[in-house]
Amino acid sequence: MNKVVGNKYKKYKSRCYICNKNILVFLASLENKRNFCSNKCENKWKSIYWKKLQKNKSFGFKKGHKMNIGNKYAVGNHPKSEWKNGHKPWNKDMKYSEEVRKKMPKFWLGKKFTKKIKLKISLGIKNFLNTHPEQKKERIRKLLQASSLSPNKSEKKLIYILSKILPREYKFVGNGKIFIENFIPDFINVNGQKKIIEFFGTYWHKKPKKKIRDKRRLKTFKKYGYKTLIIWSKELKNRDILKEKILKFNEQKKEKKWAAVAAL
C-alpha cells in the first residue's frame, strides 16, 4: 500500500466501496481501498466476501491454513492457537508474594465452584448473618457508604422541605446510621418524639413483594412504639399539601400533651 502524505487530523474526500457515495475520511483510512459510508454497506461487503471464500474451497479452508478476517479465523480447520487445548492461562501456577497470600484466604486459592456449591455458600452466609445481627448491620452500613446512592434526588428535596418547616426536628438516617431490627428508617425525630417519616417511591413500593416487606416494616416500628408517616414521591409535586401533612403529623402528640396539662 502507498502511504498518503497529509495532515492526520484533517478529513479528506473519498468514496464508499459499495454505493459510491462521497464521504469524508481521516488520513489513516485513506490508505485502505475499502471505505464505507455506513454499517449497512460494510455488512454487505462482508457477506459478499464470505460467499466468495466459501465457493473457492482451495483458498483459506485447507487443513492447517490460518486465515484472519477481522480478528476471527475463517470457517474450517486451523492450527492449535493459544485458546485451544494445551494452552495455559496467564494466572495458572502463578506465584504470589507473602503479603498477597495473607490478604487472600487459603480456602479460595485456585478453586472453581459449581452452581450447587455456590448456592450452598450463599445460603451459609445468609444463615450466618441472620444469626449474627451486629455483623449484618456493619455489612449493610459499609455497602450503603460505598454505593453513596443515599440520599437520592427526591430524598434531598424532602430533606430541604423538612429543614424549612421543622428545622432540627427530623434527621435523615437512610444511609444505615440507625437500625430497628432489620429495617432502616428514612427520617427519625431527634427531639424525643418516637416518630418516623418514610419516603416511598411509587415504582418500587407498589410491587407485591415490596408491599409485604413494607407491612413488616411498619409492624416492627409500631412494636417499638414508633409512629410512621408515609410520604409518596407523587406528593412532592404539591408542596403546600405536603407541608400541612407533615405539620399535622408532628403536632399530634404535642396537642394531646397540652390537653392533659389543661385537664390537671
Outline of the structure:
The chain has 264 residues and is an alpha+beta fold. Helices cover 44% and strands 12% of the residues.
Offer a few descriptive terms.
264 residues; alpha+beta; Endonuclease, Chain A; four-stranded mixed sheet; two-stranded antiparallel ribbon; 10 helices; 8 strands; 12% strand; disordered C terminus
Q: What would you give as the CATH superfamily of the domain at 150-263?
A: VSR Endonuclease
Mean pLDDT: 76
CATH architecture of the domain at 150-263: 3-Layer(aba) Sandwich
Physical arrangement of strands within the biggest beta sheet: 5-6-7-8
The radius of gyration computed from the alpha-carbon positions, rounded to a whole number of angstroms, is: 33 Å
Give the helices and strands as they follow along the chain.
EEHHEEHHHHEEEHHEHH
* Beta-strand percent range: 5-15%
Percent helix range: 40-55%
Q: Judging from the principal axes of the Cα atoms, what is the shape?
A: extended
N-C termini distance: 103 Å
Number of alpha- plus pi-helical segments: 10
Number of strands: 8
* CATH-defined fold name of the domain at 150-263: Endonuclease, Chain A
Low-pLDDT windows of residues: 67-83, 255-264
Please summarize the sheet with the most strands: 4 strands, mixed
**Structural class, judged by helices and strands?**
alpha+beta
CATH class of the domain at 150-263: Alpha Beta
